[in-house]
């Protein structure tokens, strides 16, 4: 790990003012600290967001769940408000990593890092979330742009995420038994005649599955997705799974998610 300057601002305004070209925001640190240890990331400055109270918290109003960027996964999983409004989102948060990861990792950090196997991006796309930053609001469909890449500009800070509550939804993943990252994860949401399907783990970045969305919008039922065969073109190929296997898993996880949503 290379030397760096450490900052602990007390407000979003102070945090943004400290940002410069080689600086990094530190949320839960579950990805950044490991990258720094391996010298894959060498920020000149670390801006710790842990004491900024305005970045944490959960609010439910008018059919929308708003979650502060520094809210821990464990808090989302345990929230009675989230469990009532979007139970699938609380369940997803409870599947992330292990207990230590869930008590350290944050929703804002997960989305900003955009790991190709992270869980929250599937929910953001599946629910049509809006990511709010210190500068603007970004629709989830425009937020994830590639492998570990997002629409965030240098120094831009995620402050909260808003999720519209669907009629029903569910998330299912085929997880790596060691890391518990998604080899493939699928989030399905039914908004009453309009369905959304977010997929993670399969490609370089989370994406929506248009064919499944069309079928589920016409009829939100298990048989709507059961026969859909996903093409392996462009899907990830690594020691965990081939593109062909991941393509197969997208359909399998979608079926399981729809089945769970209908219960």
In short:
With 263 residues, this protein is an alpha+beta fold.
Topology:
Elements: E1 5-7, H1 12-18, E2 23-26, H2 32-37, E3 45-48, E4 58-61, E5 64-68, H3 73-78, H4 80-85, H5 87-95, H6 99-104, H7 107-113, H8 120-127, E6 130-133, E7 137-139, H9 140-143, E8 144-146, E9 149-150, E10 158-164, E11 168-175, E12 182-190, E13 195-200, E14 207-208, H10 210-218, H11 222-226, H12 243-262
Parallel strand pairs: 1-3, 2-3
Antiparallel strand pairs: 4-5, 5-10, 6-7, 6-10, 8-9, 11-12, 12-13, 13-14
Description:
The chain is α+β, with helices and mostly antiparallel strands. Among the domains are: 1-47, 2-Layer Sandwich (Uridine Diphospho-n-acetylenolpyruvylglucosamine Reductase, domain 2); 168-262, 2-Layer Sandwich (Enolase-like, domain 1). The chain has helices at residues 12-18, 32-37, 73-78, 80-85, 87-95, 99-104, 107-113, 120-127, 140-143, 210-218, 222-226, 243-262; strands spanning 5-7, 23-26, 45-48, 58-61, 64-68, 130-133, 137-139, 144-146, 149-150, 158-164, 168-175, 182-190, 195-200, 207-208. The strands form 4 sheets. A 5-stranded antiparallel beta sheet has the order 4-5-10-6-7. Strands 11-12-13-14 form a 4-stranded antiparallel beta sheet, with helices on both faces. The chain has a 3-stranded parallel beta sheet with strand order 1-3-2, with no helix packed on it. Strand 12 (182-190) and strand 13 (195-200) form a beta hairpin. The chain is globular, with a radius of gyration of 18 Å. It starts with a strand and ends with a helix.
